[in-house]
Amino acid sequence: MKPKIIFIHGMFQNPKSWNRWLSHFESAGFEAVAPAWPLHDGEPAELRANMPYGLGSLPLERVYGHYRDIVREAVEPPVVIGHSLGGLIAQKLLAEGLVRAAIGIASVAPNKMLALDWGFMRNSASITNPFAGDEPYEMTPELFHKNFANTLSREESDAAWEAYAVHESRQVLRDILGEEGEIDMKLPHHPLLLIGAEKDEIIPASLVRRNAHAYEDERSHHEYKEFTGRGHFICGEPGWEEVAASISNWLQGHLTALRS
C-alpha cells in the first residue's frame, strides 16, 4: 500500500498551488492532501483583498507545529513534499523521524545557510526588513514576475499571480535564522530528495545543492536534482509535469527499498 503524501506550500502561495499535483499523484495511486498554513486557507484573490488578522506576525514555529500535528495524526508515517519554505518544513519533519521520505523543491536552507547571490540577497533583505515590523509583505504582480515567475512572460506571470499569489508574513522568514531554522544534519534519516531550479531568483540552485550535500550520515540517502530553465515557480510553470513525474519515480524506487 502506498503511503499518504502531504504537500506543503511555501511563502506567497496556498494549497491551490498544488491542485494539479494532487491530481497527478492520485492518478499514480497515492492518497494526497495539501493542508493550508495557518491563515492561508481560501481563494488567493480573497486572501489578498482581505488579509487575515495576524498574518504579519505569523511565526515559523506555528507553521511547523501545524504540520507536525497533521503528520502525527496519520495512521502510518506519510511522505512530505514541500516547496520553498515548505521544503524546510519537510526537512524538519524528516529530521524528527516523523515521515517516511521527504522532498524539498527549491527548499529554504536550514542552519543559517546563505547564498552570495544577488537575487537571494535582494529578496531576503526585502522580506525580512526589520523596519517593516509586523506589516505583511504584499506580493504585487510586478514582484511576482521579477522574483517568482521570472521564466514566464509578463502575461503568463500575471495570470499565475491572479490565480495563486497571496501576501505573506515577514516573521516566518526571519525565524529561519534562529533556533526554528536549525536541523542536525549529522543524524540518520529516511530518504531525502532536494530539487533546485536553475533560474531561481529566490532560492538559487547552488544553495539547494549545498543544502543537500550538508547531510553527513553516509548510511542515509540524500540526493540533489536540478531542472534547467526553471524559476522559483517550478511547481506551477510549464513543465511542472516533468518535475512531478521525476519525484513520483524517485518515490517508487525508494519506498520499495524501504519495504525490503
TrEMBL record:
GO molecular function: hydrolase activity
The UniProt record lists the keyword Oxidoreductase: no
Domain named AB hydrolase-1: residues: 5-244
Gene3D superfamilies in UniProt: alpha/beta hydrolase (3.40.50.1820)
Segments crossing the lipid bilayer: none
Keyword tRNA processing: no
Source domain of life: Bacteria
SUPFAM superfamilies for the chain: alpha/beta-Hydrolases
Record's keyword terms, sorted: Hydrolase
Name listed for the protein in its UniProt record: Alpha/beta hydrolase
The species this protein was found in: Luteolibacter arcticus
